[in-house]
Task: structure prediction
Amino acid sequence: MLGRTDLEASTTWDFPSQSAGHPEAGDASFNGVTPAGCAANLVRRYTGPGELVVDPMAGSGTIGDVARALGRRVVSFDLAPRRSDIFRADARSWPLSAQTAALAVIDSPYSDNVVYSPDSRCLGRISCRDARFYEEMEKVASEAYRVLRFGGILAWIIADEYRAGVSTPVGFRLLGFLEKRFEPIDTIVLVRHHDRSASPMWEHRARRFNFFLRGFKFLLLLRKPEWTGRTSREIVAALRERVGIAAHRRQDRIVERAGRHWIAWRSRQADRVFAEIRPLRGRVQVFILPRPRDLMDSAGLARRAPRSQGWGWFRSRFELTSMAQVEPAARLIVQSYEHGVRKRNGGRARSPARNKQSL
Ligand SMILES: C[S@@+](CC[C@H](N)C(=O)[O-])C[C@H]1O[C@@H](n2cnc3c(N)ncnc32)[C@H](O)[C@@H]1O
Result:
C-alpha cells in the first residue's frame, strides 16, 4: 500500500516507470499501458475499501490489478481480453447494473494509430479526425454515466494527435462531450515516457521540421452529479418546454395534472392524456402511448410498459437519469402526443388531481 504522502498533489503526474510501486500490475510492454501509479492515485483518492472500480478498456489489466491490490472490487473488460480475469465486452455496452460503481477509469485509444485487435468494433480503428470517433466515445461515456453511482468519478486518459502536419486537440474535444453529462473536477497532465518517438532521430525531425513530439496525455477527471429534487424538476421542466412547443405548432395546449407521485399531460384539443411522468429518486420515469416498435427511438430508451404500471393504456416506458437524455426523451413524448392527437377518442376518465395547469 502506498503511504498518503505518495498521493500526487499537483496537476502534473510524472511516474518514472509503468510499474513503479506496483511491480505486478499490468504489462509494461503492452502498447499504451497505463502507469500503475496513476491507477493507484485515482483508486486511493476516489474510492473506499470494497467499492467497485470499472476498467472497461482493460488492455493488460493495470487498473484492475492496482484496485484489487488496494482492496477494491473490480470489473475489468476489453473487446480483446488478454487474461482470463478480464471479461470480453464492448465498452459501449457495459455488463453491469446502473449506479453500482464508485470509479470508472477509461484509458481509450485516441485515434487509429494503434489497432489493438482484429475485431472491427475496436475503437482504435477510428481516426480522431473523424466525427464518428467522438460519437462512439460518447456511447462509452453514456455507459459510464449509467453505471456510476451519483457522485461517482470518471477518469479518462486521452492524448492529442499530431500527424502529417495536422494537429487534432482530441482531449479538449472529448472534454466538451463529457461535460454534457459530468461535472469537471480537474485536468491532469500525465507525462509520457518511453514512446517510440522519444528518440534522437525524432527529436531531430521535430526541430528540423518545426513540430512537437507528444510529451503528455490528459487525464480528465469528472464527477457524475449528485441527484437532487432539483435535478428531477429541471428534467421535467425541460421536457415540458419541448412538448409545449410541439403542441403550440398545432395550436393546441397541454393541460397538466399532478398527483402526489405523478404528473399527467393531456392534449386540450384531443382531450387525451398522452404521457405520465413519475419523478423518482435518481431517475424520472415516463409512460407514453405508442408501443416501442412504433417509435422512432434512436437512443434506444423505450421499453414495453407492463400493464400493471402506469394507467393501463400506456404501451412504452423509459427513464431519464440526466439532463443529457432530455432531447431523445422529448422526441418520444412528442411522438406520443402526435399519436394521441391522431387517435383522439374523446378523452379517458380523469383521475383525481391536486393541481391543474395549462402549459
Ligand atoms: C490504451 S489500451 C488500455 C491500456 C490498459 N489500461 C493497460 O494498462 O494495459 C486501450 C484498450 O481498449 C481496447 N478497446 C478498443 N475498443 C474497445 C471497445 N469497443 N470495447 C472495449 N475495449 C476496447 C483495446 O483492445 C485496448 O486493449
About this structure: Confidence is low (pLDDT under 50) at residues 345-355. The pocket of S-adenosylmethionine is lined by residues 26, 30, 32-34, 56-60, 62-63, 78-80, 90-92, 107-109, 116-117, 121-124 (CB under 6 Å). The radius of gyration is 24 Å.
